[in-house]
Design a protein that fits this description.
The protein has 185 residues and is of the alpha+beta class. It folds into 2 domains: 6-112, 2-Layer Sandwich (Beta Polymerase, domain 2), CATH 3.30.460; 114-183. Helix content is 46%, strand content 20%. The strands form 3 sheets. Strands 1-2-5-4-3 form a 5-stranded mixed beta sheet.
């Protein structure tokens, strides 16, 4: 396991969990890493469980791969990555139901669409003033502008809930920076 990339480990874990009746989708910052590993390296793999979260069942299944519960995450000394599980698949207040399958040498796993992964990082910036998340979203747009469109990104961004003037200002800044990244040479 020590030689596996984040995506290969995600595929290994997702396949193993599926054999135990647990369906997962990679979300959060690890979704960015899955799409563009050169842009951002998450040290945890965020899994959203689509079949109903049952920590006991997850723990039992993961022990078969050498992962043990350490607080809220699962760790295995054979890998640098820890696993984190969430019950719902949301970006901001919007349920996500469309995913893509990414193929690796270790198998296939489901992950947020690229545009939703970008919107997830922007939502972290807007709601928690997490400037690193905006930087990651900006670098992701610049690195993937050949395989996405501003319209798809804007559609995902438009569904983020904006509740106050500070959030409006942060969204304006995010849109400006992402559009500039999309148009950069």
């Amino acid at each position: 396991m020590e030689e596996l990339t984040l995506s290969e480990l995600a595929a290994t874990v997702a396949s193993h969990l599926k054999r135990h009746g647990i369906e997962v989708v990679v979300v959060g910052g690890s979704a960015i890493t899955a799409h563009v590993p050169d842009v951002y390296t998450s040290m945890d793999i965020d899994f959203a469980v689509t079949t109903g979260i049952d920590r006991r069942k997850i723990s039992k299944a993961l022990r078969g791969l050498g992962f043990n519960e350490q607080g809220r995450v699962y760790a295995n000394p054979a890998t640098i990555y820890v696993l984190d599980f969430v019950a719902n698949i949301y970006i901001d207040q919007r349920a996500i139901t469309d995913y893509v399958d990414l193929r690796t040498a270790a198998g296939t796993f489901r992950v947020y669409r690229l545009e939703d992964a970008i919107a997830d990082r922007v939502a972290a910036f807007i709601h928690w003033s997490d400037s690193e998340s905006l930087d990651v979203a900006e670098r992701t747009v610049a690195a993937t502008k050949e395989r996405t469109s501003w319209d798809l990104i804007e559609t995902a961004l438009s569904q983020i809930e904006i509740l106050d003037a500070d959030a409006v200002a942060r969204m304006d800044l995010a849109r400006t920076r992402l559009r500039a990244a999309m148009e950069s040479v």
